[in-house]
Design brief:
The protein is built from 6 helices and 8 strands. The strands form 2 sheets. Strands 1-3-2-5-6 form a 5-stranded mixed sheet. A 3-stranded mixed sheet has the order 4-8-7, with no helix packed on it. With 221 residues, it is α/β, with parallel strands linked by helices. The radius of gyration is 24 Å and the shape is flat.
Length: 221
């Protein structure tokens, strides 16, 4: 039985390798058939694409992309998201430990994904906005597309429910929302190794200017 299974696997692998080889051969044949004019046109198209991409990058950088920034109040929030396709905004509180964990990962992703604007906003300075967006748990990431809130990452539940999630896990989650250009497999999240005995979410009630917020942290500073 085991030998039959191995034979089947071997045949499948051989067929796959043959298909890949045929595809590569076809591409090489196509390149060999090109004359100098064809190659020149191909180079021109690639150069034009590179110039366009560089121009787009410079435009993003001029709008504040490429760095993880704090905005001083909710008033500035609307100006930041206006005419910006992709925005990730971290609603945080200084006393919540998990907000500091998110800060570290978001700073990394802001530099990697220049196509997206990464912001943070203190909920104590944004009572109207937090109520309007129905933000009840801190930290919460609001994910916006074309100025409209599409999705939320609430606490660490979607990130493996552990403080030790890798940056790749958050990157995958943002990719699922379509708020960054994600090149990995959206159907399968990165593996998170959970230590035995790790404590997960404990919710504590806090008050901000008379409003109740839940803290998605094991402990607060």
């Amino acid at each position: 039985m085991a030998n039959q299974q191995m034979d089947i696997i071997t045949k499948v692998l051989e067929q796959s390798a043959k298909l890949v080889e045929e595809s590569v051969d076809a591409q090489l044949s196509k390149l060999n058939d090109m004359d100098e004019d064809d190659l020149d046109r191909l180079k021109e198209r690639r150069l034009e694409a590179l110039k366009k991409a560089q121009k787009q990058k410079q435009e993003w950088l001029s709008k504040g992309h490429g760095e993880y920034r704090e905005i001083p109040s909710e008033k500035e929030f609307f100006g930041e998201v206006k005419d910006t396709k992709n925005v990730v905004c971290h609603f945080y509180r200084n006393s919540t430990f998990r907000c500091k964990i998110l800060d570290k990962h978001l700073a990394i992703l802001a530099k990697k994904h220049v196509e997206t604007k990464f912001l943070k906003l203190n909920v104590e300075k944004a009572p109207f906005l937090t109520e309007r967006l129905h933000i009840k748990v801190i930290p919460t990431l609001a994910l916006l597309l074309d100025g409209k809130t599409k999705d939320y990452v609430v606490g660490f539940t979607d990130l493996g429910n552990t403080d030790e999630f890798p940056t790749e896990m958050l990157e995958w989650r943002l990719g699922c929302a379509g708020v960054i250009n994600y090149s990995g497999n959206l159907m399968e999240p990165p593996t998170v190794n959970k230590r035995s005995g790790t404590k997960f979410t404990k919710v504590e009630k806090k008050t901000i200017r008379g409003r109740g917020y839940d803290s998605d942290s094991d402990s607060d500073d």
